[in-house]
Amino acid sequence: MFISNAYAADPVAGPDPMIQILMLVGFIAIFYFLLWRPQQKRAKEHKNLIANLAKGDEVATGGGLMGRIIKVGDAVLTLEVAEGVQVQIQKQAVAILFPKGTLKESA
After folding, report:
1. Over the stretch 38-69, which tens digit does the pLDDT of each residue have?
2. Is there a domain that residue 87 lies in?
3. What letter would DSSP give residue 92?
């Protein structure tokens, strides 16, 4: 008498599952092309740079130290940063390889 009957509402259809899957694939593709692929490319270029370092190359480290390589070891380089001043650094610290003669021009 005072309580009315409760009826279930018609089911509301949600978004199409195929659209959700396509959106997920789209997000993965965006992450791949904008984040993962460029990072892999930079890592590969840096690995090649480190592998091809040789005596006489002019380099800059990630910390901003610039010098000429005078000795190349397996994991360590010896840089001459000034006349008679030598510093040992890890190979992985090298960030930039300059063209020959760059350090003379900048001094």
Report:
1. 999 999 999 999 999 999 999 999 999 999 99
2. yes
3. G
Token pair of 56, please?
A: 């006489």
Tokens read off for 62: 């990630």
The pLDDT value recorded for residue 1 is: 65
Do the Cβ atoms of 62 and 95 come closer than 8 Å?
Answer: yes
pTM of the model: 0.70
Nearest-angstrom CA–CA distance, 20 and 26: 10
Tokens of 69: 């390589």
**CATH number, domain containing residue 80:** 2.30.30
- What's the pLDDT at 27? 95
Number of folded domains that form the chain: 2
- Tokens 């978004």 sit at which residue? 15
